[in-house]
Amino acid sequence: MLYLGCHLSASRGFSAMVRTARSIDANTFAYFTRNPRGSRARQEDPEDLDAARASLREGSFGPLVAHGSYTMNLSTARAEDRTFAASVLADDLRRLAALPGNFYNFHPGSHVGQGVETGVAQVAEALRAAMAPGYPVTVLLETMAGKGSELGGSFQELRAILDAVGREDLGVCLDTCHVWDAGYDLAGDLDGVLREFDAVIGLSRLKALHLNDSKNPRGSRKDRHAPIGGGCLGVETFRAIVNHPALRDKPMILETPNELPGYRAEIALLRSLDAKS
Ligand code: FE
Ligand code: FE
Ligand code: ZN
51 alpha carbon to ligand 3 midpoint, in Å? Predict the structure, then answer.
């Protein structure tokens, strides 16, 4: 059984997201923990959360993949911005504790001229402070395209953050567009890329995927998502991904330029590529 879903709006609460997910044949989903470009979080309603937890169980959903705000830059040079980002992270994690067993994915951020080493140390410091021992939600670093001074544009940079945090329960979310744009040949050599991932990061750390085609050729470092099959990765890459034994049991989230009908069609397409269904 594949766990497929897309980004959904959290504006009407959790039960509404579960209903919307079911209406498009999704069995996982992502949502922004707060306005993706702002920082305000909505107040959760405990009844809504209870109802959502029950319908997630009934619907045999895979883990949800909540997404931290794009503006949360834990590796920025400005100390006050970093303090703010760290407080946003801590607040996100506190709220997500209400959804144990699910995932929280975020962008490691941009070091903006400070250098990779300083950026890595700062992200790690914020994570160590925010992740209580035995924290019930798995925190995931997203693989990035390496645009500008973005951290996480190579498996080695993610490894450096994992090492600096020093916790076994910190994972990675692989974004297919980002990894391709960062230069890894997912279309030509999926097994080779996964071997490299395993050697540098360890496949046991891989907990979720973002499925996006890319508008640009490999190594472009642009980060422009395309619909599945409508970019440089192509449908066959996604056929290989959904059928790959190391990947097929992970939640896979679409972040393609789409509205709900488009996501429904992409989920149907991906399910049709599954050789076991
Ligand atoms: Fe992301
Ligand atoms: Fe992504
Ligand atoms: Zn992206």
Answer: 31
- Report yes or no: 118 and 111 within 8 Å, Cβ to Cβ: yes
**pLDDT by residue (tens digit) across 181-233?**
999 999 999 999 999 999 999 999 999 999 999 999 999 999 999 999 999 99
CA of 25 to the centre of ligand 1 (A): 22
Neighbours of ion ligand 3 (CB under 5 A): 223
Give the helix/strand (H/E) hosting 82.
helix 79-96
How long a stretch of residues is the chain? 277
Give the pLDDT of residue 34.
87
CB atoms within 10 A of CB 271: 14
Q: What domains, with CATH codes, occur in the chain? A: 3-273 (3.20.20.150)
Q: Distance, CA 247 to ligand 1 centroid (Å)? A: 18
